[in-house]
Structure formats: structure tokens, C-alpha cells
Amino acid sequence: MCSRVWDTHTGETLHTLQHAHIVRAVAFPSTPRPTVLATGGAEKKLRVYDLTRSSSGSPSTPNALSNGTNGDAATPPASPSYEIGPGIHQGTIKSIVWGADSKTLVTAADDRKIRWWDLRSRSVVGEYEVDGVVGSCELNTLLNDTANGVLSVAAGKSVYFFDGLMSRQLMKSVKMPYEVISVALHSERRRFVTGGSSDTWVRVYDYDDTKELDVSKGHHGPIWSTSFSPDGKLYATGSEDGTIKLWKFCSDSYGLWR
Predict the structure, then answer these.
(1) CB within 8 A of 209, min separation 6: which ones?
(2) I need a labelling partner for 146 at 20 to 30 A (CA). Which of 2, 18, 20, 95 fits?
(3) Is the dihedral of CA 224, 115, 171, 146 positive or negative?
(4) Helical segments of the chain, H only
(5) Distance in angstroms (rounded) separating the CA atoms of residues 78 and 197
(6) How confident is the model at residue 79 (pLDDT cuts 50, 70, 90)?
(7) Residue 226, H or E segment
């Protein structure tokens, strides 16, 4: 089992990161050219990799690759890593979110715990137990957001909204009449979008009074991912049916939409 880092321009494999079990989550810090990567999965281990070095200490870059016996590029050298909080996670790590300061991580796992980590001390600095198995955990930010965004979590029949990554303060939780496996918040318009596991409908709610405002149909499987575009005028949904759909979320014309 492994995770790989690719060059998006050339298609080359830059790093191959070996794991003993299935990898369910990977995350880069939100910096222009990140040099570290966090991974988690069925091993129940949170790892942070240094992508600037191979295990031998030499740079792990495309120039460091050697040719194999058949003329193909050899496997890239492994990058050194360290584990954060050994033995803390008691279930598969489903999601990793990196803070803007690159010193804070949030993990969501099948043990129904959302955990905030300080990478300097490599320890848990906050923990929150949700009511069901976590479906998604994402940091929602828009282009003109001045704050640190909102951490949105879908778990069981509830959605949770936390104030960014630093404060760990629960802003709101909403009980839903169905199993929710994805959620995204539009902080300006104060709307949130959900995807469920038991039906194939995308639902839009008012954040303040939690009333259902709209229902969109078109998927043919559980909706595992929802996300707003950076400008907030579209949102995307990804389903087990193998499709990603874009939905217009503004009243004026947008691209091909009128």
C-alpha cells in the first residue's frame, strides 16, 4: 500500500510513500509550494512526510530518479516521515485538514473523534466526539474570507460547524432526518449543502433557521463530497455513481449558465 505525489505538469511520480494499509486521507499545507505532506488511513496512524529529502538524506526530486533495467524510471526514493500521536486514533483516519499556519492539523476518524493537533508538540490540543461515523471533514473558505474559515463536519445524522481551526469552538450543530456523509458551508450567504448516503439528492439549507431551501436531483448513488467554488458561485458534488456535478449558486449568468 502506498500514496504517491505527482507532478501535475509532466505526470511524473515525484514521491512514493509506503504504508502498511489503505490510505484514506492526504493533505498539503495551504502554502504556495508545500514541502510536507500528511497522510492517514486504516493503519490509524497520522504521518507527516518531509518531501524535500529522501530516506538517505538526498533531495527527492525528478532529477534524483535513476533508470531501471528496462529503461523505465525507478521508484522514487522514499521521503522520511514521523508519526504524530502514536496509539491515539482508534479508528480509520477519514480526513485530514491542515491549518493556515502549518502548525495545526485536524483529523477525523472512525472512532467518532475530531482532533486538533499541535505539530510543534506533536500532541492533541482539542477533541470533540460526534454522534456518528464521520463522512466528511473540510475547511470551507471563500476568496474574500478574512477569518480562518469554517470547519464543516458531516457525521451520522448531524452536521457540525467549527470556528476555523485554531479556536476549536463549535459554532453550530444541526440534526438531520437522514444520514449525512458530506456538507459544505457558504459563509457569506449563510447556506449549507449536504449529500446523503441513503438517497441521491443534494439539499440546500439556511444556516440560521436550518430550513430546507432547495433540492437538486441527478446523482444515482451516495454523495460523498460537496464543495463550493472559491468565488462561491458554484458548488460541486461527487457521488459513488462515478460523476462530479456542478450546480449554479448565483442569480446572475455564470459561464455557460444563463
Answers:
(1) none
(2) 95
(3) negative
(4) none
(5) 37
(6) low
(7) strand 223-228
Dist. CA 258–CA 190, nearest whole Å: 23
Residue 130 CA to residue 138 CA, distance in Å, equals: 15
Phi, psi of 62 (to 5 degrees): -55, -30
What the block records as the C-alpha cell of 142 is: 471563500
When pLDDT is averaged across residues 140-169 and rounded to a whole number, the result is: 81
C-alpha of 240 from chain center: 17
Coil, helix or strand at residue 100 = coil
Instruction: State residue 23 phi and psi, 5-degree precision.
Output: -95, 125
With 80 as the cut, is the pLDDT of residue 132 above it? yes
For 233, how many CA atoms within 13 A lie in the half-sphere containing its CB?
12
pLDDT in tens, 7-19: 889 999 888 888 8
Provide the sign of the torsion angle of the four alpha carbons 135, 39, 15, 6, taken in this order.
Answer: positive
Give the dihedral of Cα atoms 85, 86, 90, 91; nearest 10 deg. 90
Q: Using an 8 Å Cβ cutoff, are 183 and 130 in contact? A: no
16-69 tens-digit pLDDT: 888 889 999 999 988 888 889 999 999 999 999 998 875 433 333 333 333 333
Q: Using alpha carbons only, give the angle 19, 25, 27 rounded to the nearest 5 degrees.
A: 105
Phi, psi angles (nearest 5°) of residue 212: -75, 125
Cβ neighbours for 120, distance < 8 A, ≥ 6 positions apart: 103
